Structure formats: structure tokens, C-alpha cells
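[job 0417] fold request received: tRNA-cytidine(32) 2-sulfurtransferase
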Amino acid sequence: MTAVTAEKDYSFNKLQKRIRRDTGKAIQQFGMIESGDKIMVCLSGGKDSYTLLDTLLYLQRVAPIKFELIAVNLDQKQPGFPEHVLPEYLQQLGVDYQIVEEDTYSIVKDKIPEGKTTCSLCSRLRRGILYKTAKRLGATKIALGHHRDDMIETMFLNLFHGGKLKSMPPKLVSDNGEHVVIRPLAFCREKDIARYSEAQQFPIIPCNLCGSQENLQRKQIKAMLNQWDKQSPGRIESIFTAMQNVTPSHLVDASLFDFKSVIATGEADDDGDWAFDAPPLPAADTKKGPTSDPDKAIKITQIA
Ligand code: SF4
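[job 0417] inference complete; emitting C-alpha cells
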């Protein structure tokens, strides 16, 4: 083995370990998978969903609990959709799968006037079909491939355009109340997923087949975050750590904290607030992030 190949192997192994460890940590921290679960893994053919399936298959092999996986792709009949790609890939993997064919593309084209954005109807239709499929398959969980950076982007979208401090939850009950949806890649960085997907040579299906433009606001936020990441290394990590470290009493939402019941305790508290000046900025504790304690996280991965 040449030095270059050895170095490449080493860095691939490190990357794979990190993705598996971060996924295991999210699964454990949010109680995403239980013994006996049948997990429907939504596979779009993009880098994120391939990485999700690949990592869940690994965890299924090493986990001390038993759970089933079934990959589901929704063929929305977009022009040029390469129908053979996913079945070939999934057969080669030997994983259970279903391709659901529903022509949502024609419905969307028919209902939405030319030039208007089609994504909201398209995703509503897709959601409904995936819920129906999960029910038909008897799936106890639906797994989606959203990652840490999707969650951060969504938080800024809501902050800048929606007037809400709200991101994408790692685990939730679906809007029809019938399904538990999980996002096992919640702690994984998009750049790791992109590198992993490239190294694994996943057969990527382009995501612009419908002809719709990517949401402009999301695009702008992505560009802003990328710039921050280049100019101020560590800022994105700090933001994500902050999302796991919320202090409702120091925000302004009276439904989260009972400000009316605040009374003086009469006891000094060294960690208490300074009432007259803004407190000094604490040193960012990015250690709470998923990559801070590799040994601990690896153990978590093993038991996930
Ligand atoms: S980009 Fe295309 S496929 Fe994706 S949600 Fe929008 S309309 Fe649907």
C-alpha cells in the first residue's frame, strides 16, 4: 500500500467513524430507535439519504437491539428520473425496499400556475404518500436524512422570515398524529456527509429534475452560514451548541417561563444574574457538541 493510499484510507475511516458516532449519539440522546422498531428510511437518491441508509445499516449490524429497516423511494414521475438507479443500488445492498410510484409531478404542474413556486404543494403530496406508505408497511418510525446544517438553516429561516425561534426537531410526531419521524443525522455536518457520499460513490440522483428553483431564502442563509464558517471558524459549532443549550428564563416567551411568579429569594447566588449590566459573554462551550468526547460517543454508537 502506498503512503498516499494509506493516508486516504485513514482519513476515510476517520470520517466514517465520525458519521457513525454522531448518528449513534443522536439515536441515543433522543431515544430514536427501540427494540422491535420497523424503520422506513426515506431515500430520495441524494447524498443525505444514502448516508442515512448506509449508517443505519451499519448500526443495525452492531447494535445490541434488533430493529428492521426498509428503504422507500417515492418516484414522483419527474421527467428524466432514472428509475433503474435506486432498485439496482438497493438490490446490490440486499436491503428490503419499496419504490412507490405516484405522479405528483403532473398534479403540481396542473395546479400551480407557471412561474409560481411548486414546492409547498409538492412536499404536501409527498408527505401524505409517505405517511400512507409507512402505515401500509407497518413502520413504527420514519427516518429522514436531514442533518445538523439543515437544522441550523431552518432555525435562521424561521428567525429571519418567520418570527419564530424554531428549528427542525430531531424527533417528532407527524402532523397527522400517526407517525414518529426521526432524523438520525441530526448531529452530522453536511460537509462530512458530502465527503462521505463522494468517497462511497453513491449513485446520486440530481434533485433539480422538477425544474423548480431552490428556495431563494434558504439559499441566502446557506451562503451566509458558509461565509461565517470560513471567516469565523467555530461559529457554526457554537450556534448548534446553543440550540442544545436553551435558557427560557432569558428569552421573552411568557409561555415558556412564568415571569409573573418571579420573586426575590433573599439568597445570594454566585451564578445569578447581574441586574444592571449585561453579563460578560461566557466562553463558548462547544464541548457540548457531538464531537467533544470521541471515546464516550464511540461507546454510545456501540450501544445505539
Ligand atoms: S424542488 Fe421540486 S421535487 Fe423538491 S419539493 Fe420542490 S417541487 Fe418538489
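[job 0417] notes: The longest helix spans residues 3-29. The radius of gyration is 22 Å.
[job 0417] exit 0
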